Amino acid sequence: MQSLAYTNIAFYIAAYLIGGIPFGLILAKMFAGVDIKSAGSHSIGATNVLRVVKERDPKLAKKLAIATVLLDALKGVAVLLVAKLAGVPDATLWAIAVLAVAGHCFSPWLMFEGGKGVATGVGVLAFMMPLVTAIALAAWFILGKTLRISSLASLGALVTFIVASYIIYPDVPGIHSHAPIWIIAIIVVYKHIPNIVRLVRGEEKRVA
Fold it and tell me: Could you give phi then psi for residue 126, rounded to 5 degrees?
């Protein structure tokens, strides 16, 4: 029993520390020589990588943005995959998912600042609920193509995920609760408060 507790704690710490790795910041500095924390929206996510690096090199910006999305999504999945192979229970997997998103949004490597948690959230939720995530991604794609506002598409996809999770999983396997989903949603919405304010004011920028 004590061994299981130590194992869980090790995965929780790993999820938070690895989730906090700011891949967008690292890639932009390494390959474009720019600090995205001091430019654009100051976020470490793919949208700001695209926005800031695009001013110097549009082709490089797209490559770095795609790499940022993939790495931000996979960093949470990597810990979940190892934990799954180790045979931890579903409750531990959900806690790892939450901590990976928390690590990205409140990174220990950036004085507890960070990104908005969308890509990391998509990664861990795709691992836990692939069908629901596919539906949410479809909503994100449609909203992104029609509205061309990244934050609005992300928030719309989040709402879609929550609704779809209740329809497809009225009783979440292993934990019998939607609490982890709501915690992730609250973190993501909290990090989008500046975007929501700009959306209300009609000042949120569209993605070109």
Answer: -65, -35
CB 140 within 8 A of CB 149: no
Three-state DSSP at 179 gives helix
The DSSP string of 15-59 is HHHHHT--HHHHHIIIII---GGGSTT---SHHHHHHHHHTT-HH
pLDDT tens, residue by residue, 149-181: 989 999 999 999 999 999 999 999 999 999 999
Contact 47, 41 (CB under 8 A): yes
- pLDDT above 80 for 129: yes
Q: Where are the beta strands (DSSP E) in the chain?
A: none
pLDDT of residue 208: 60
Residue range 48-64, pLDDT digits in tens? 999 899 988 999 999 99
- pLDDT higher than 80, residue 137: yes
- Neighbouring C-beta atoms of residue 44, cutoff 10 Å: 28
Task: Kindly write down the DSSP assignment for every residue of 60-116, as one continuous string.
Answer: HHHHHHHHHHHHHHHHHHHHHHHHHHHT--HHHHHHHHHHHHHHHHTBGGGTTB---
Q: Crossing angle for the helix pair 130-147 and 118-128, nearest 10 degrees?
A: 150
pLDDT tens digits for range 181-196: 999 999 999 999 999 9
Local structure of residue 175 (DSSP, 8 states): T
Closest by CA to 24, choosing from 39, 41, 45, is 45
8 A C-beta contact, residue 137 and residue 160: no
